Amino acid sequence: MKGLLKFITCGSVDDGKSTLIGHILYDSKLLYADQERALELESKVGSRGGELDYSLLLDGLMAEREQGITIDVAYRYFTTDSRSFIVADTPGHEEYTRNMAVGASFADLAVILVDASKGVLVQTRRHARICSLMGIRHFVFAVNKIDLMDYSQDIFRSIEGQIGQLVEELGLTNVKIIPVSATEGDNVTMPSQNMDWYQDETLLAYLEQVDVSDVEEEQGFYLPVQRVCRPNHAFRGFQGQVESGAVEKGQEITTLPSGETAIVKSIFVGNHETEKAEKGQPVTIQLDREVDVSRGCILEAAAETRVANQIEGRILWMDDTPLTEGRNFFVKAGTKTIPGTVTKICYSIDVNTGEEKRTDSLKKNEIALCRIVFAQKIVVDAFKHHKTLGEFILIDRVSNMTSACGVVDKASVREGGSGYGEIREVRYRLKGQFPITAGFSEESDQFSTEFLKDVEARLGGFGRHTYLAENLNDSNFVEVVKALSEAGIITLLPTTREKEEKLLDALGESFLNIAKKGENLSVEDVVTEIIKASSLQQMEEKHVDNEGGLGI
Fold it and tell me: What is the model's pLDDT at position 228?
């Protein structure tokens, strides 16, 4: 007995995912008599001319049956003589990609269906990439509907080549490719009599014997604290699931992020005290002294986890509203939920080619590498090192809906709390502008007060955050202008030659000297110049110093 296997079925629309799992359940005699009878009756008015429609065993929603598609994730438990299984049948339609990602987050193996009449499609690639993103390391590509292609070996080999290119592109490991017919049952639970050119195991036989425990094990003990248990004044225990390693009574452990050490006084699994607990067990741990631990903290022993306030991670954007740089979310990482900001979308990833594309916004179902800054330091680590501490979701702060899921590529600490330079950068992105200071020479008859007010009004009409700074005190005007710049404001300022030199020294290239742009400039000319100079692209070209103003 090889224990429990958790797997998902995924792929493009109408590739036969529900039919495949339904056929496994039917052939394996895993249905109750009333379920089997209901299937036979409902199939008589189904879409297969009276023949058994195995997808009805999985598609339970009325909308699913009416449209013949899967919408929600359907979980099924079944067992054979060799193994127990939990399968998540996930939707193939692009609109429900977020549902598929939820199913992938729990699985050890992915069965990706490919329609033999269509080959590898965009959604096939997207689902394979999401499965890889979610940490799945074992894949079965089931080339379905091979019966419609007259069981052609040539067509199978051609699709096998397409899959091989996808596997190489994504760096997938532990891949199996099987030709099947979900409706007719070829190579599903029994070997096909129609494909003498395929002599390997059936899909169910492979699932029964595949070993998914060969994934590199995480090192050391760690436990994310889910709850502090205080039934009375004499007992204070920390509850959670052991995610890696083992913990024993009398062992010294470290609490993060505080860094305090303590000795394990007692261990409870349920209400039974034990000497030792291992990976996967839910436990209550009592320590020999009082420590600063609450939900979201970590108990560890040589797990080498990280305390960080900034990460770079790959995300799947699942919200209808596009993601833009500077948006604030609640970030849930492990058992910790904390405010965070997407300060930068480094690049999006093309699901077809894997090409990295520079962008400043993200649409639904797109994948991208993003930089996220937290409000404080938390325990987080790269997904490849610690799976539980490397997964996160972004939660909309208004609707409380999950907007994105992702994994951590890199965790780091920004100097100065959450990084002062990063906070300034967030301000700029929230305002959608780079804060330049535009100087207008007082020696020019052209730049009257009315002219500057007109420029300010026009910039406001373009959505720019602008302030006309007149009559500033000569002794502190530089400090005032720097403060406005720090706040992300575009400042319009009457200047003299002496003021221009001081501003250039203080602000560098973020100072725009309109007087040197030529005479007889119209309001439209000036507005165009300021909009160009204040575009967010300027922030990519200039260095934001952690300690103070903007440098070159």
Answer: 92
Name which of 317, 433, 331, 407 is nearest 373 in CA terms.
Answer: 331
260 closest CA partner among 235, 231, 291, 217: 291
For residue range 171-188, list pLDDT tens digits in order.
Answer: 888 999 999 998 888 998
Domain 221-301 has CATH 2.40.30.10: yes
Q: How many CB atoms lie within 10 A of CB 366?
A: 23
The answer to whether 237 touches 318, Cβ cutoff 8 Å, is no
Compute φ and ψ for 255, nearest 5 degrees. -100, 135
User: What would the pLDDT profile of 95-130 be if each residue is shown by its tens digit?
Assistant: 667 777 777 877 889 999 999 999 998 888 888 988
Question: Domain 307-418, CATH 3.40.50.700 — does that match?
Answer: no
Higher local confidence (pLDDT), 383 or 549: 383
The domains spanning 221-301 and 307-418 adopt the same CATH topology: yes
pLDDT tens digits for range 1-20: 467 899 988 887 777 777 88
Return the exposure string of 32-50: e unless at least 16 CB atoms fall within 10 Å of the residue's CB, then b. eeeeeeebeeebeebeeee
Dihedral sign of CA atoms 339, 344, 346, 352 in order: positive
Pick the CATH number of 4-209 from 3.40.1440.10, 3.40.800.10, 3.40.50.300, 3.40.190.10: 3.40.50.300
Q: Are 224 and 240 in contact (CB under 8 A)?
A: yes
Domain regions of the chain by residue span: 4-209, 221-301, 307-418, 431-551
Q: Quick check: 449 and 469 in contact, CB under 8 A?
A: no
